[in-house]
């Protein structure tokens, strides 16, 4: 549903290093691949802790549960119409958060948009050379609507079934599950007594405590959405402590229709079924947890700018930066009032 590449990280990966604050604390790092993207984790501990197996276990749990890129995952079994597919509490947690965001954004965040994402060639079922015609979009819209799904207990503890009032729905959590994986990794670190860390999965990040190497809050940069491929320019940096941030942007993942020459972006508007560019180029959301930040970032990318302006005052639980192209052809910025307290460097 989206490609999360609008966040750059401003910390340096380094080997175990003593800190001024606590001479027994060492810097420890993990990085690798996760749910179709990459991850990096930096944390401080008073003793060496080999947490890579636990991270791998969480990644495998999410892959097998809700990755549409894993052929026999639970979510793919559900999408294939298989009966009585029991899913676990991590699936329900994502489902419940998605339902909340779906409701609060008037349907602009909708995990049932998968058939349309696939039709445009951005999904897991293979690339398509042609974009769908209007009549095909209209036909696929009957399968869109998160209200058509529900979760019910499966009769065993922490086991649930997904019930659908409409067959043929293609459910995907690609626009929110990375954030939830970040939250799960963060909880695991805290369960091991780690209080100073930064976790990133596919550009989604949560930061706790401080960066003990620098004796300051964690710094996270936000990319300029107008940069061309191969560049890495920042528009600002934010400081995070016990907060999460996620970003969404269409400037790195789009396709050009070979016949019409028109550009189509990977963020599909679930209300219209269209995947056409809008004036909104990038969104960053700061929230208490990364699941919320992730889902809302997608919603505001799909949403018209004026709709965002009307909706944001009703969402005090998040702070948002929206980057858009003005009528003068210049990059513009709008933020909620609280976003500015996190800004480390002035927006250019």
UniProtKB/TrEMBL annotation:
Its cofactor is Mg(2+); Mn(2+). Flavin transferase that catalyzes the transfer of the FMN moiety of FAD and its covalent binding to the hydroxyl group of a threonine residue in a target flavoprotein. InterPro entries: ApbE, ApbE-like_sf. It is an enzyme of class 2 (transferase). Keywords: Cell inner membrane, Cell membrane, FAD, Flavoprotein, Lipoprotein, Magnesium, Membrane, Metal-binding, Transferase. Its EC number is 2.7.1.180. GO terms for molecular function: metal ion binding; transferase activity. One of its GO terms (cellular component) is plasma membrane. It is a lipid-anchor. Pfam families: ApbE (PF02424). Magnesium. Can also use manganese. This is FAD:protein FMN transferase. PROSITE patterns: PROKAR_LIPOPROTEIN. Belongs to the ApbE family. The lineage of its organism: Bacteria, Pseudomonadati, Bacteroidota, Flavobacteriia, Flavobacteriales. It catalyses: L-threonyl-[protein] + FAD = FMN-L-threonyl-[protein] + AMP + H(+). Mg(2+) binds at residues 175, 294, 298. It comes from the Bacteria. It is found in: Cell inner membrane.
């Amino acid at each position: 549903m989206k490609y999360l590449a609008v966040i750059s990280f401003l910390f340096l990966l380094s080997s175990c290093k003593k800190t001024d604050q606590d001479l027994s604390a060492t810097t420890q790092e993990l990085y690798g691949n996760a749910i179709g993207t990459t991850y990096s984790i930096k944390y401080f501990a008073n003793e060496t802790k080999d947490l890579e197996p636990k991270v791998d276990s969480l990644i495998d749990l999410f892959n097998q549960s809700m990755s549409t890129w894993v052929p026999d995952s639970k979510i793919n079994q559900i999408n294939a119409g298989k009966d009585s597919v029991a899913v676990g509490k991590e699936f329900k947690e994502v489902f419940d958060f998605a339902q909340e965001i779906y409701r609060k954004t008037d349907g602009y965040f909708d995990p049932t948009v998968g058939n349309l994402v696939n039709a445009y060639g951005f999904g897991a079922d293979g690339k398509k050379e042609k974009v769908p015609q209007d009549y095909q979009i209209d036909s696929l819209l009957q399968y869109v609507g998160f209200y058509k799904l529900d979760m019910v207990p499966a009769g065993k503890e922490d086991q649930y079934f997904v019930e659908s009032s409409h067959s043929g729905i293609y459910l995907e959590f690609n626009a929110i599950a990375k954030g939830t994986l970040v939250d799960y990794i963060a909880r695991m670190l805290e369960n091991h007594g780690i209080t100073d860390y930064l976790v990133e999965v596919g550009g989604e990040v949560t930061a706790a405590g401080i960066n003990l190497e620098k004796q300051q809050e964690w710094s996270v940069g936000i990319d300029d959405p107008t940069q061309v491929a191969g560049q890495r320019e920042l528009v600002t940096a934010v400081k995070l402590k016990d907060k999460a941030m996620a970003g969404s942007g269409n400037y790195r993942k789009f396709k050009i229709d070979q016949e019409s020459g028109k550009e189509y972006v990977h963020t599909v508007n679930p209300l219209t079924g269209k995947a056409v560019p809008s004036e909104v180029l990038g969104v960053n959301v700061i929230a208490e947890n990364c699941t919320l930040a992730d889902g809302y970032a997608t919603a505001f990318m799909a949403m018209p700018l004026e709709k965002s302006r009307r909706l944001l005052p009703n969402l005090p639980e998040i702070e948002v930066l929206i980057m858009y192209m003005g009528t003068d052809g210049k990059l513009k910025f709008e933020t909620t009032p609280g976003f500015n307290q996190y800004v480390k460097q002035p927006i250019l």
